[in-house]
Amino acid sequence: MPQLTEPQNEEQQLLDKLRPSRIILPVLIGLSVVGFMFWRSYQPGDLAPLANAKPAWLLLMLVILVARDAGYVYRIRYLTEKVLSWRAALDVIMIWEFSSCVLPSAVGGTAVAPVLLHKEGIPLGKSVAYIMATAMLDNLYYVLAVPLVVLIGGDALYPHEALQGGLVATLRIGFIASYVFVTVYALLMLYAIFINPQSVKRLLVRLFSLRGLRRFRNKAYKMGNELVLASAQLRGNGWGYWLRAALSTAFVWTARYLVIGCLIAAFIDITWPDFWLIFGRNLTYKVILLIAITPGGAGIAEGAFPTFFGKFIGTPTMTNFMVLLYRILTYYLYLVLGAIFLPRWITRIFGKRKAVEVMAS
Hints:
The chain is built from 14 helices and no strands. By secondary structure, the chain is mostly helical. It has one domain. 35% of the residues are buried.
C-alpha cells in the first residue's frame, strides 16, 4: 500500500503546484505595479522613441529568446543522456519555465523539475541527480561571470544614479554576500559530485546540528543523501558529457542576460560599452530577484527594473514601457505557453480526465 500512496502524493503535489489558478496572482501583482508606474510618470510625447524602432535589434532579440529556449531543451535532453525525446524535453522546459513563473523566485522551477523528469520515465534518483547537475552548472556560470562583469563594469554595476549612497552600499553588500554564498554552494556541489559526497553530507548534518539551525537538519540530511545519489549517477560520465553541458549552460545564461540590452538598443541609441554594462547590471539585478517572495518575482522585478536600467532609456514613461515589454517577453509569455503545454503534458502523462480536472481547478 505505501508503494501506491507515495507516487499518488507526489503526483498530487506536482499538480497542486501547477494549478492554472496560480496564474492570477502574479499577473495581478505585476500589471498593477506597471499600471501604477505608468499612472505616476506618464507624459505625452515620452513614447516618441517607439517610432524609431530598429527592426534588426528586434529580430535579434527574438532570435535570442528562441535560441535560449532551444538551448534549454538541448541541455536537458543531453543531460538526461537522451532518455527524453525532443518533444518530452520541450514539454519539460516549458512547464519548468511556467512553474518558475507561478512559484516564488527562491523556489523556482527546481521544486517540480525532478518530478517532471520522473513522470517522463526517468527513475526519481536519476531525476534528482540531473536537476542537481543543472543547478551546479547554473551556479558555476554565475561564479565565473561575476568577476568578468566586475572587471568590465566596475562600480558602475551599481545604480548610483538611482539610489542613495546607503542603498548602494546595501546592494553592494547583498551582491557580494550572494556571490560568496553561490560560490561556496557551487564548490560544495562540485566537490560532492566528483570527489567525496559522504564528507559533504557529514559537513551539512553537523552544520545544521548547531543551535539555531537544528530545525533545518532534516532538510540538510535529505540534501546530503541527494548529493551522494547524484555523485553515484553522474561521476562516471565522460568529459564530452560535461563539456556539452557546460557550453549549453553558458549559452542559455548569456542569451538570458542579453535580452534587456537588445530590447533597449531596439528603441534607444546606446554605445557598445553601455550595452555590455547593461549585460553586467543583469547580474546585480538578479540579486533582487533571488530574494523576491512573490511568484516569479512579480511586482518586484517590475519595480526594480527602472532603478537598474532607467538611465540607459531616458524618460520614466519610456522606461515603464520597456518594463512592460520585457516582462511580456520573458514572463507573461511563459504563463501563456504554460497554459498551452500543461494540459497537453498532463493528458499525455496522466490521461485526459486528469487534465480536465486540473485545468478546471
